[in-house]
Design brief:
Largest sheet: 5 strands, mixed
CATH architecture of the largest domain: 2-Layer Sandwich
Radius of gyration: 24 Å
Shape: globular
Distance between the termini: 50 Å
Number of helices: 21
Structural class: alpha+beta
Number of domains: 4
């Protein structure tokens, strides 16, 4: 409905071939123009409408190079029988496969009819089929308002396995059983989140395990989280990623940042929710370890950006930029630390009440940082100057760097690892693998390894833990950073295999950054990139390509 009674509607499009635009069920031809193209954003599609216009029909085809769509040959999939395609719209790429108003500040519902080869199944960010049909035609309805970056599709030789009455797993056939076991606690996570922050409002919560070229650990598409196969560790050690994506069902999908300047409202809140779900499901000891790891990530990011850098604000300015280029761990980890400050200052009970009311107030809406601060001051601070001075919300959100009131993260388990760290070079490494067992413990141990490790020490550690060949995705990535830094050549073949087998942008950028610190490493990095880029996602190719130009 044209509630504004306007005579024009503007859509975003990037690299689409628009053949015609019509109005209404009568398909009356409409006048349309394409505006000036700008980098990253494409062109505005301006369509002339009438005050009584209710429907605009846009006929178009996508480009084979659409940034949001990754087309995979059979050999690039797990089963290696059929092709696969999936979308990744965040942050401004949905416009490369659907003309839309591609802003997180605008929400819509959608219906879709997708026709695919009969051997394949289509799924979307909606309630999905649980088995293939003989027609190859699938219909979808997302009746909850979502933003454009959450409109998603995947097509492949996909199967489904339920976990409980409202959760389940989609994956290629050879991955399905392993994935279903790995994510067996999914229903428990949903229930834990509901007890903390109110009802899950989306109906079903399923996950789809994608081929390795998926560029992120996970993507919180409503009803169907997209996941990297790298989280299937065989021991459920990396399922905290699931808690993060599930958390977006409240912070991000339900209440959304209105602009990409406000992305911390998505990611900071979701990281907080993730930690709370983790504590509820896995216990306080696990939560303590995750806190310390979180602070280490934040510390590393702050050191990389440097003191006073505006990129370390929570409220940033991405005007004229590709929002993806400005994304770091700052909105996640600094946002999480700020919300911890609030919780520790007002108490968990009061903060849980506030955050639940916040989700209820802004459900299915988008919000700016300024609107959040207004709500925060009216409903939590309530004119209490002493409380405001203790929390320092404006300093946390609007200023760079980390305020002095950041909570100290502690873990008794990690204190034990710290003691081992002080003595292992003298006592030797034999038996360490029996004392440092969990993924969290290994992460912490690797995080604080000395900078001046000898070749003999690298070899001894690798022989004891099998980091190079047997670690899960997270452990191997961390170990490989050390191996590159220390020029530990026995790991080089596995490093190369690892970097060619994944397309996770953040992990790859971390490794490539370490490589290019030396002339020989930069040559090696370029060699790997040339071999691997055909299987990388477009956003990964851009990020790594820009890095290697420096």
């Amino acid at each position: 409905e044209n509630t504004a009674q306007g005579n024009e509607i503007i859509f975003d499009e990037n690299s689409l071939a628009i053949s015609k635009v019509t109005l209404g069920d009568e398909e009356t031809p409409a006048k349309f123009t394409l505006g000036t193209e700008t980098e990253f954003h494409g062109k505005p599609l301006r369509v002339s409408i009438k005050p009584d216009t209710k429907k605009v029909n846009i006929y178009y085809t996508t480009s084979k190079d659409a940034v949001a769509l990754q087309w995979l040959r059979p050999e690039q999939t797990a089963d290696k029988k059929y092709p696969f395609v999936f979308s990744q719209g965040e942050s401004i790429w949905t416009r490369t496969w659907v003309p839309c108003q591609d802003s997180p500040g605008i929400k819509f519902t959608y219906d879709a009819k997708i026709t695919v080869p009969k051997e394949l199944m289509a799924v979307m960010s909606a309630i999905n089929p649980q088995k293939k049909n003989n027609s190859g035609i699938y219909t979808f309805k997302q009746d909850k308002p979502i933003t454009s970056y959450l409109m998603a599709i995947a097509v492949g030789d996909i199967g489904f396995k339920p976990i409980d009455s409202r959760t389940g797993v989609y994956a290629e056939q050879s991955v399905l059983e392993k994935a279903a076991w790995e994510f067996g606690e999914l229903g428990k996570m949903v229930s834990a989140a509901e007890k903390l922050f109110g009802p899950y409002r989306w109906g079903r919560y399923d996950v789809l395990v994608l081929p390795p070229s998926f560029p992120y650990g996970g993507m919180e598409n409503p009803n169907l989280t997209f996941l990297t196969p790298g989280v299937i560790a065989g021991d459920r050690s990396l399922t905290s990623l699931l808690a993060h994506e599930l958390g977006h069902s409240w912070s991000g999908n339900l209440v959304t940042n209105a602009t990409w300047d406000d992305v911390w409202l998505n990611e900071g809140f979701t990281t907080y929710v993730e930690h709370r779900i983790g504590e509820a499901v896995f216990g306080k000891a696990e939560a303590g370890m995750q806190d310390v790891l979180s602070r280490k990530v934040l510390s590393n990011n702050m050191a990389e950006y440097g003191k006073g850098n505006p990129e370390t604000k929570l409220k940033v300015n991405v005007s004229g930029k590709n929002p993806d280029d400005s994304l770091s761990d700052i909105p996640y980890e600094k946002g999480y630390a700020f919300l911890q400050v609030v919780e520790f200052t007002v108490g968990r009970e009061a903060f849980d009440k506030f955050i639940t009311e916040y989700f209820n107030t802004y459900a299915f809406r988008s919000i700016t940082t300024e609107e959040f601060l207004k709500y925060f001051n009216e409903h939590l601070i309530k004119g209490d100057k002493e409380l405001a001075d203790k929390i320092k919300a404006e300093q946390w959100i609007l200023q760079p760097d980390i305020p002095a009131n950041i909570p100290v993260a502690t873990s008794e388990d990690f204190n034990r690892i710290d003691q081992i760290q002080k003595t292992w070079r003298t006592d030797g490494v034999k038996g360490l693998a029996d004392k440092i067992k969990s993924t969290n413990e290994k992460q912490h141990f690797i995080d604080y390894l000395p900078k001046n490790l000898t070749a003999a020490e690298m070899t001894a550690l690798d022989n004891e833990f099998d980091f190079t060949t047997k670690g899960n995705f997270v452990i191997r990535r961390q170990w490989f950073v050390i191996a590159i830094r220390q020029q530990y050549q026995p790991a080089y073949p596995e490093i190369e295999k690892f970097m060619m087998a994944t397309s996770r942008t953040g992990s790859l950028v971390t490794l490539y950054k370490e490589m290019i610190k030396t002339p020989a490493g930069k040559i090696w990095a370029k060699q790997i990139f040339e071999k691997a880029k055909q299987s990388y996602h477009a956003t990964t190719v851009e990020a790594v390509g820009n890095l290697l130009k420096t």
